[in-house]
Design a protein that fits this description.
Blueprint (H helix, E strand, L loop, with lengths): L23 H10 L14 E2 L11 H7 L10 H13 L4 E5 L2 H12 L5 E4 L4 H9 L3 E4 L20 H11 L7 E4 L12 H12 L11 E4 L3 H11 L8 H10 L3 E5 L10 E5 L2 H14 L10 H14 L2 H20 L12 E5 H4 L9 H13 L1 E2 L1 E3 L1 H4 L14 E5 L7 H16 L7 E5 L10 E4 L12
Parallel strand pairs: 1-10, 3-4, 5-6, 6-7
Antiparallel strand pairs: 2-8, 7-8, 9-12, 11-12, 13-14
Length: 475
């Protein structure tokens, strides 16, 4: 049998940033100071940082060269025009407003389109997206397929919208109460799961059948943060797309929407930035008014000219087929090691992260004792690897103040783009596997500080039982 040849990174390394391996004692002290919340750790105390892929990418030499061409004019920067051209060429929408990052775009579209009493259907919630929708008076309604809530289901497109759920909602509340359907491509909270092109097409056809009193069909707004990864999965998994380029697939994906919010800090390979897109001039015009209040002039939206230039160049780089194939393969490389070792992870493995199934990993810890938060903290103590909780803590409380207990209680190990090698992934795998072998020594956590919004960022915890793995807390 012919041995399958391995591939290497589709880039060369030009600059390096030293990282330091800390001692177990140093990490124990750091996690105590951070209240057992990995978001509150200092980066100097982290060995391999898998907290997020947001703004943590390594930029190319071409992007860094573009940074030197920053036009820092307060209005009408030439870098804005370069960004406009890149966005309209690659995504295909008519209008674009830059923002400081993705949540700035979420805020704008929520304020423009959502009215109190509205319902916003989406294929699983995302934390900041739902927060902005609820602040505008809307109610988020999950219309993702049921398979998305099952970590072991092997459906190739677990991010798909359930058409029956969506149509039932539209019929129940009426199209005038649906400002837009929010479709994330890919679905972060489900483990980076993609949406099929067939499903996007079907959602478009469904929305077109329901016309609002303003004469428009129900809108579709994409959370396009990781849309190129979604395009890659369509290319690899969906019939009829294997011979098409990512650029072509992405353009078709976006054609089924009326606009998008975008965090440029992911796919676009930059450290800061985002934008709002729309095909409606009226929405664009209102966005240019609101962006002045909350972000900056419509031609910079809270960004320096150099940052817009880097993002414009990153947009063209992100649709390179070889780059994206390696990017996803590195995530799969880590995931396959864990699966082979019997570690419970969300399957199929997604495109930006490996998600540990904390409920199965720590099945002796009830969800009320935050098993995902526990696992993320323990992983850091074991090896200096920083992941993040995506479960009960991230889900927060409902409008009545009761804790939400999602079916998925996960720890996200998020791979920054063009930053780490597969040797780093080996270190991560060794730590997770070793921790899985001693999982019975872990006890749950209790929350000792809880902020009123987006609590996962700044909440603080303590071990309930200071024994076993948490023996050091007694000191």
């Amino acid at each position: 049998m012919t041995r399958q040849r391995r591939t290497a990174e589709p880039y060369k390394i030009k600059a390096v940033e030293p990282i330091r391996m800390t001692s177990r004692e140093e990490r124990e002290e750091a996690i105590r100071k951070a209240g057992f919340n990995t978001f509150l750790l200092d980066s100097k105390d982290v060995y391999i940082d898998l907290l997020t892929d947001s703004g943590t990418s390594a930029m190319s030499d071409n992007q860094w060269a573009g940074m030197m061409l920053g036009d820092e004019a307060y209005a009408g920067s030439r870098n804005f025009h370069n960004l406009w051209d890149a966005v309209t060429n690659i995504y295909g929408f008519k209008y674009m407003v830059p923002t400081h990052q993705g949540r700035g775009a979420e805020h704008l579209i929520s304020q423009i389109l959502i009215r109190p009493g509205d319902y916003v259907p989406g294929n699983m919630y995302f934390t900041t997206t739902r927060e902005h929708q609820e602040r505008a008076g809307g109610t988020f309604v999950d219309v993702v397929i049921d398979e998305a809530h099952d970590s072991q289901n092997l459906h190739p497109f677990k991010g798909n919208v359930d058409l029956v759920k969506l149509e039932d909602l539209i019929r129940r509340v009426g199209p005038d109460r649906i400002p837009y359907v929010s479709i994330a491509v890919t679905v972060n909270m489900a483990g980076g799961q993609p949406v099929s092109m067939a499903n996007l097409r079907a959602v478009r056809e469904l929305c077109d059948r329901y016309v609002r009193s303003d004469g428009r069909p129900v809108r579709i707004m994409f959370d396009a943060t990781r849309c190129v990864e979604n395009a890659y999965f369509i290319q690899q998994r969906e019939e009829g797309y294997s011979g098409r380029s990512l650029r072509d697939i992405l353009r078709e994906m976006m054609s089924y929407g009326d606009g998008c919010t975008m965090s440029g800090k992911k796919d676009c390979l930059v450290n800061i930035g985002g934008f709002l897109c729309t095909n409606e001039f009226e929405v664009y015009q209102e966005a240019t008014q609101l962006v002045v209040v909350f972000e900056g002039m419509p031609s910079y939206g809270g960004l320096a000219g150099r940052d817009m230039e880097a993002m414009a160049r990153g947009i063209y780089e992100m649709v390179d087929d070889d780059y994206m194939a390696f990017r996803v393969s590195q995530v799969q490389y880590l995931g396959s090691q864990l699966i082979e070792a019997g570690v419970p992870v969300v399957r199929p493995v997604g495109g930006h992260a490996v998600f540990l199934d904390a409920r199965a990993f720590l099945d002796h810890i009830p969800q009320s004792e935050y098993p995902a938060q526990t696992l993320a903290a323990a992983l850091y103590v074991d090896s200096g690897v920083r992941g993040m909780e995506r479960g009960n803590v991230s889900a927060g409380r409902d409008k009545e103040g009761k804790e939400r207990f999602p079916k998925l209680e996960l720890v996200r190990l998020t791979i920054p783009r063009r930053v780490y090698t597969n040797n780093h992934m080996d270190v991560v795998a060794d730590s997770v596997i070793a921790l899985h072998a001693q999982r019975e020594t872990l006890g749950g956590l209790k929350m000792v500080y809880e902020p009123p919004q987006l609590r996962f960022f700044t909440s603080r915890f303590e071990p309930i039982r200071r024994e076993g793995f948490w023996e050091f807390v007694k000191g």
